[in-house]
Amino acid sequence: MTAKLINGNEIARQIREELKQETAILKEKYSMEPGLVTILVGQNPASVSYVTAKQKTSKELGFYSLQDNQPEDITEEQLLKLIEQYNNDPKIHGILVQLPLPKHINETKVLYAIDPKKDVDGFHPVNVGKMVIGEADYLPCTPAGIQQLLIRSGVKVDGAEVVVVGRSNIVGKPIANILLQKQKGANATVTICHTGTKDMAFHTKRADILIVAAGKPNAVTADMVKEGVVVIDVGVNRIGMTAEGKAKLCGDVDFEGVREKASAITPVPGGVGPMTITMLMMNTVKAAKLALGIKS
Ligand code: NAP
Prior knowledge:
The protein is α/β, with parallel strands linked by helices. The protein contains 10 helices and 11 strands. It has helices at residues 8-30, 45-60, 76-87, 107-113, 125-132, 141-152, 172-180, 200-204, 255-259, 273-291; strands at 4-5, 35-41, 64-70, 94-97, 161-165, 189-193, 209-212, 230-233, 237-241, 247-250, 264-265. α6 packs across α7 (172-180). The longest helix has 23 residues, at 8-30. The radius of gyration is 19 Å and the shape is globular. The model has no long low-confidence stretch (mean pLDDT 97). Residues 142, 165-168, 170-172, 193-196, 200, 213-216, 219, 234-237, 272-273, 276 line the site of NADP nicotinamide-adenine-dinucleotide phosphate.
């Protein structure tokens, strides 16, 4: 069996098209534009490229978008004040503080200062708690993107054995929580593996759906999966250089080996990656609708 590719670029494009239409309706019916501010502290090149991509996408969708660049030496107090200002700004529905922050600023304190209603990254403990009890307004972006990839590729999650490799707060734990909810596109039996797991292959071989977020190339190889498994590879690892002098990207799964046994698999790049920004946009549209009292 050679796996079907789950095309994250195409699924992200479909969702963005839907969001563009929803944005146009919000403008027409309510004279409202979803408003997103991205706050960048300093000029870390990777962070600059992430916020640039977020701004570009939000503009393409027709949002009111604001890029707020702050100097590296901004104090924690000044940053907290700035967040308070956006918490009270009715034109802003989503606040994104690009991480990492400089060492003199307490990241947790900053993320907790964002009004949970404007927390479109889904990292505030109020939103994490709502996700765990199955009443989320906003799901964290990468796990939400993984769920959409499964649903929109027609993968049956209900009743499936899902194995997640990795227990980070941004990927492993939330995706496990999301897929075990008694809800549509979920209702799976979920196992989480990590570096303390005694026999990882024992678990991964049982998986109907295997989600790998370890941050290690080849963390999962062909001998660790069963025939017909659906594999979502979240990992982004930079290994060596291409002929053009760019870093080569690979996931956490031995793609060539595993694709011969899997029924479907996400590539890296072009799998989970394009979904993360798209789900940030989806959360911003949701935040704008919630501000209008529309819950859907
Ligand atoms: P992280 O915080 O480093 O967590 C990695 C997790 O994997 C930890 O729980 C660790 O276990 C576990 N782990 C590591 N090696 C393992 C192994 N050999 N066997 C079993 N478990 C292992 O990473 P993260 O933030 O979740 O990110 C994971 C990967 O996804 C990274 O490559 C990251 O770049 C990528 N990522 C991609 C996107 C995207 O949009 N495409 C978004 C987020 C992350 P312990 O807890 O025991 O240490």
